[in-house]
Each structure stands twice: as C-alpha cells, then as structure tokens.
Amino acid sequence: MALKARLISTAGMVVFLLLLALAGCGNGGDLPSGAKASAELKSPEGDVMGAVTMTQGPNGVLVSVNVTGLVPGGHGFHIHEFGRCSPDFSAAGDHFAPENSGHGYLDVDGDHAGDMPNIYAAADGTAQADAFNDAITLASGRKNSVMDDDGSAIIVHEKPDTYGADAGAGGRVACGVIVPD
After folding, report:
1. Which tens digit of pLDDT belongs to each residue from 70-99?
2. How far apart are CA 104 and CA 41, in angstroms?
C-alpha cells in the first residue's frame, strides 16, 4: 500500500510541476497580459496605409490589422525578423523564425513564429483582421520575442500565402516596424 501511495504522490508532483512550468510559458511570466505594441504600415513610397496592434495575452499575442490601399483579394501577412523597413522592405529580412522551423501551416516541417493567416482586402482595398499567434511574445529577453535586440517588422505581401514550404506571396506592399506602446 505504501508503494502505491508513493507512486500516486510522485505522479501528482509531476503533474503539478508540469502545470507550474506551463503557466509561465505563454509570455515568460515577466510581462503582464494586456501589454501592447504596434506598427504603422507604410507603402514603399512612404504613405501611411494602416496599423497593426499587438496585445499580449497569457498564452500568446493577439494581432489586429487595419490597412487600406490594397488590391482586392488575399495578401500574405507575416512577422519578419528585423525591425527595419528602410531603405526598402527587404531590410525587414526573412520571416521571423527563432526556432529555425519550416514555413507554412501545411508544411510537414511545421510553421514558424512569423507565419500569420492571410488577410483579405475588400473591393475598396481595405482589410481588417484579428489573428492570435501563440508562437510569439512581447516580453523582451525571450527567444520568441518580437521585441528582441534587432526588433521585428510586419509585412503585407502582394499575393496570398500558400501556407506551404514556399510562401509564394510575392512582393512586399506594406511594412511597419513593431514598437512597444
């Protein structure tokens, strides 16, 4: 009987420790839910096209976009690895992938932290969308933080993402550097 009680208490302790570890995984425990960041989206000519707001939650970040001036239809929407848009949008680098994982929700190698769902512009060129990204945080000092030493940017692409290994989203039509609010 004593052995059985010890096994149950050991199993209970393992579950408790796992739950305790998971409780801090979302944002590192050092950033309160509700912390915010934003990015002003600009065209290659420097015209303001809209904004992205980011709100830290206990298990990831809510990303909201409101953009104008797009061609109607789908557009890839990604977090990129550097907080730079100038001199041209290539300064933002590749998609944000701190774990060096593959690209795309449908890729057998999995997606990376910068993958976001496509956004869709209406006939008037406006798009509004919310997406929840549980692979990023606004907490500095974390490997998956979009607020790391070199920052991060949001890019809107000319075509929709394929969600496969090759994004196929085409050129970059809007860029914004993510800054804390």
Report:
1. 999 999 999 999 999 998 899 999 999 998
2. 23
Vertex 73: Cα angle to 67 and 78 (nearest 5): 55
Dump pLDDT digits (tens) for 86-138: 988 999 999 999 988 888 888 888 888 999 999 999 999 999 999 999 999 99
176/78 Cα distance (integer angstroms): 11
CB 127 within 8 A of CB 119: yes
What's the predicted TM-score (pTM) here? 0.81
Give the separation between CA 69 and CA 38, rounded to whole angstroms.
19
CA-CA distance, 179 to 177, in Å (whole number)?
6
